[in-house]
Amino acid sequence: MPLPDAGPLSDVAVTAALEAGRGALVTIAPGDTSMAPLLGTGDAVWVVPLPADPRVGEVLVFRQQEYLVVHRYLGRAVTSGGTPCLRTRGDRRNRLDPPLPPTLVRGRVAAVRRRGAWSDLSGPGARAFARAVAAHALFWAAAGNAARPVGLDRVVARIDAALLTIAVPVLFPLLHRRIPAPAPSGPSKTP
Predict the structure, then answer these.
(1) Hey, which residues does 153 pair with through a beta bridge?
(2) DSSP type of residue 73
(3) pTM of the complete model
(4) pLDDT value for 184
(5) Domain 8-179 grouped into CATH 1.10.260.40
């Protein structure tokens, strides 16, 4: 999901805030649906430094070409050339993102603002949700690849999106606790 004001300066500003131990508030670009139904226009993410290797299912912020992207981490992989990389995908995308060098990851999303309310992405329920969505993403990306040669990849993509459209509005509020808006300055703490 490309982020607004997503030129190099935005990347520099987010990176500087995270390197200083602060979080960064980033809003979702108008019209971007790559992380729907979890995130859409007007929503925001609170990005914090990545203290260690990402956990499967976490939502990461990383640099892709000339902009920042918010997508879900699905696991480690190796490129065809043997280089270690990360696998990511936007929840609404049916294909995996290109292999991601770990050096392009700027941080992880600790909280999201959906429809004006902040929710924490930590805790056992939130982590279970994240792992389940990551497993869903891997399964449906593979199904889309398998269906592509026979021209059914769009059908698979619609099923994938429909399942998320049903599950996220029901499960997200049950498994994520509401929190106050994260502090815009000072040392970063996971909400």
Answers:
(1) none
(2) E
(3) 0.88
(4) 66
(5) no
Query: Residues 133, 139, 145, 151: is their CA dihedral positive or negative?
Result: negative
More confident of the two residues 12 and 189: 12
The span from the CA of 126 to the CA of 145, in Å, is 29
CA distances 157 to 57, 112, 143, 178, 181, Å, are 20, 25, 9, 31, 34
CA dist., res. 4 & res. 2, Å (int): 7
Domain regions of the chain by residue span: 8-179
How many degrees, rounded to 5, is the angle at CA 9 between CA 5 and CA 11?
80
80-103 pLDDT per residue, tens: 999 999 999 999 998 999 999 999
Q: CB 64: neighbour CB atoms within 10 A?
A: 15
**Both tokens assigned to 146:** 């398998």
Residues ≥6 apart with Cβ < 8 Å to 133: 38, 57, 72, 91, 164
